[in-house]
Amino acid sequence: MELIQILKALSDESRLRILNILRNGPLCVCEIEAILEISQSNASRHLSKLTNANLVNYYKEAKFIYYKLDHETLKQYSFIQNILDNELDKDKKLKYDYEILKAYKNANLSCDTVSQVKDVILEITK
Predict the structure, then answer these.
(1) Hey, how many other C-beta atoms are within 10 angstroms of the C-beta on 76?
(2) CB under 8 Å, gap of 24 or more: what pairs does 109-113 form?
(3) DSSP letter assigned to residue 85
(4) Which of 105, 28, 35, 110 is nearest to 67 (CA)?
(5) What is the pLDDT of residues 49-94, one digit of tens each?
(6) Domains of the chain (ranges plus CATH)?
(7) What is the pLDDT of residue 106?
(8) Residue partners of 126: CB distance under 8 A and separation at least 6
(9) How far is it, in rounded angstroms, from Cα 109 to Cα 46?
(10) Nearest CA to 115 among 35, 47, 38, 46?
(11) Does the keyword Membrane apply (predicted)?
(12) Residue pLDDT, tens place only, 15-59
């Protein structure tokens, strides 16, 4: 049953986009929303499905909830790690998301300054 949940979770573009940016390490929900330009409710819904499939887990730090890849599941189902490492960069939209993430990290933004992500996105799209 777990494998079916995993495959269902992987079949959605928004969830793949989330997994794609989590490859680089934990992110707060507000960072995921800003980087992917999705609503809080949309992000939460997809993160819930990824959590239920054991693809991500989370921890709370102060007032923020951070999500990260569940490395135990990635070890158990090595094909997922293969997809993350070798396939996601082939998709234009996922590659763009990753570029925004890198620019976000390079700008030293955080949850407290996440509203500035739009400025980072504008710089990339110039």
Answers:
(1) 13
(2) 111/28, 111/30, 111/31, 111/64
(3) I
(4) 28
(5) 999 999 999 999 988 899 999 999 999 999 999 999 898 888 999 9
(6) 2-125 (1.10.10.10)
(7) 85
(8) none
(9) 23
(10) 35
(11) no
(12) 999 999 999 999 999 899 989 999 999 999 999 999 999 999 999
Tokens of 121: 């996105």
Distance from first CA to last CA of the chain, Å, rounded?
46
Q: How far apart are CA 126 and CA 102, in angstroms?
A: 16
Residue 117 — very low, low, confident or very high, per pLDDT cuts 50/70/90? low
> Tell me, what amino acid is at 100?
I
* Residue 20 to residues 1, 61, 62, 75, 112, Cα–Cα distance (Å): 24, 22, 25, 17, 23
